[in-house]
């Protein structure tokens, strides 16, 4: 076999992301380093994934232990870490059983399949519709991009998977349409992340939950970005006084090791019988080792108390920016998922922040999204404040 060693001008990696011109090679806690040895304060956490900071010792130790024993076996056998992680997730939520997969999109895909099977095999109806919301984001597989209420994500992928209707977010009156649509489920984010860091109103969420109970429609919350302590409770729904039937999680669950899951109430979970859904890697020994260490650490170290305290300090610092810079329209979000609404300046601000050794994100063109690790300290927030101040000043001067 001849190996082609010619140097191509084209990147061997597909251009599905427009990447910043830095290469990250190392991380610890709230910091990452590039291949030139430059250190950055990371307030992106790999997009809400490295919730315990980079390379957390507890997760590293558990992964190292598992690496010595068994990396993978199929789901045809019992996997102790999987059992343990499922027990942790169900003991700390309103749900009873877990299905493991490898990403957020796969978790939502499983939720959508579960909703259809619940409607058709448990309830004995022919409904399949899942109601989602405008500006939502649920993933990039065909079904989850069809579930996503943003045209830009769907362009060029027609025909979409049928069976999704998008209602306006936070609009109580529009919920009347649920009754005529007779859906199998409603799927929502409690803070729309990619859509612009928009928290759901309490009253609106409660109304949805009421309709779901009344009509036996599955209430499914997409906690892929809001879950695993991000908003100050293990799951954001715990601040809304509701009990979802299905919770989808991924991102922070493995502290950076790929894993996804749906956690479902028994009444919904029983719609999946042997052979109805599966995944080769889902819940494998390594992924669930990372999950067990992550969830155990959040609970045992009382990390959520820290999140609630530090997010008050974070809010105070962000509010000062709003008072100072007139183009800041709003500061919104929950816990350590925050958005600064900045007109159309978000991409420019994120770009400029890199020069000040700070990594932050956009959520659309109008919002700067901030996702520090849950372990962030006051000193690190002060460092962030200085770097952001410098960034805002450069933007004001038109630099
Ligand atoms: C709310 C929400 N749902 C689903 C997804 C898709 O997750 P993944 O990229 O792991 O497929 C994301 C990713 O950003 C998300 O924020």
What does this structure look like?
- The protein has a 7-stranded mixed β-sheet with strand order 4-12-11-10-7-5-6, with helices on both faces. Strands 1-2-3-15 form a 4-stranded mixed β-sheet. A 4-stranded antiparallel β-sheet has the order 13-14-17-16.
- Helix 2 packs antiparallel against helix 10, helix 3 runs parallel beside helix 10 and helix 12 crosses helix 13.
- The protein has 2 domains: 126 residues, Aspartate Aminotransferase, domain 1, CATH 3.90.1150.10; 244 residues, Type I PLP-dependent aspartate aminotransferase-like (Major domain) (Aspartate Aminotransferase, domain 2).
- The longest helix is centred in the last third of the chain and has 22 residues.
- It has 399 residues and is α/β, with parallel strands linked by helices.
- The site of pyridoxal-5'-phosphate has 15 residues, from helix 4.
């Amino acid at each position: 076999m001849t190996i082609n060693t010619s140097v191509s001008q084209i990147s061997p990696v597909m251009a599905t992301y427009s990447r910043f011109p830095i290469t990250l090679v190392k991380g610890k806690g709230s910091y990452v380093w590039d291949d030139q040895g430059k250190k950055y304060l990371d307030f992106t956490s790999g997009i809400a994934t490295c919730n315990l900071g980079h390379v957390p010792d507890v997760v590293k130790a558990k992964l190292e232990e598992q690496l010595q024993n068994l990396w993978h076996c199929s789901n045809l056998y019992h996997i102790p870490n999987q059992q343990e992680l499922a027990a942790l997730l169900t003991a700390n939520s309103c749900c009873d059983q877990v299905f493991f997969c490898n990403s957020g999109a796969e978790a939502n895909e499983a939720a959508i399949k579960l909703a259809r099977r619940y409607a058709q095999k448990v309830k004995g109806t022919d409904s399949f519709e899942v109601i989602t919301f405008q500006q939502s984001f649920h993933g990039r597989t065909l079904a989850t991009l069809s579930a996503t209420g943003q045209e830009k994500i769907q362009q060029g992928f027609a025909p979409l998977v049928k069976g999704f209707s998008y209602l306006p977010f936070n609009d109580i009156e529009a919920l009347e349409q649920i009754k005529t649509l007779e859906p199998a489920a409603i799927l929502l984010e409690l803070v729309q992340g990619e859509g612009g860091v928009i928290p759901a109103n309490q009253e609106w969420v409660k109304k949805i939950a009421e309709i779901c109970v009344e009509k036996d429609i599955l209430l499914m919350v997409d906690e892929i970005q809001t879950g695993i302590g991000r908003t100050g409770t293990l799951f954001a729904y715990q601040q809304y006084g509701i009990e979802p039937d299905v919770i989808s999680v991924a991102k922070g669950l493995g502290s950076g090791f790929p894993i996804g899951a749906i956690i479902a109430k028994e009444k919904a979970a029983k719609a999946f019988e042997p052979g109805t859904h599966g995944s080769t890697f889902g819940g494998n020994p390594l992924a669930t080792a990372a999950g067990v260490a992550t969830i155990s650490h959040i609970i045992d170290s009382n990390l959520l108390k820290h999140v609630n305290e530090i997010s008050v300090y974070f809010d105070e610092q962000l509010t000062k920016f709003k008072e100072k810079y007139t183009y800041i329209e709003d500061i919104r979000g929950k816990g350590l998922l925050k958005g600064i609404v900045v007109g159309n300046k978000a991409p420019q601000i994120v770009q400029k922040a890199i020069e000040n050794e700070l990594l932050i994100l956009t959520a659309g063109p109008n919002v700067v999204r901030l996702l520090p690790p849950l372990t962030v300290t006051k000193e690190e927030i002060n460092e962030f404040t200085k770097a952001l101040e410098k960034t805002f000043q450069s933007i004001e001067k038109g630099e």
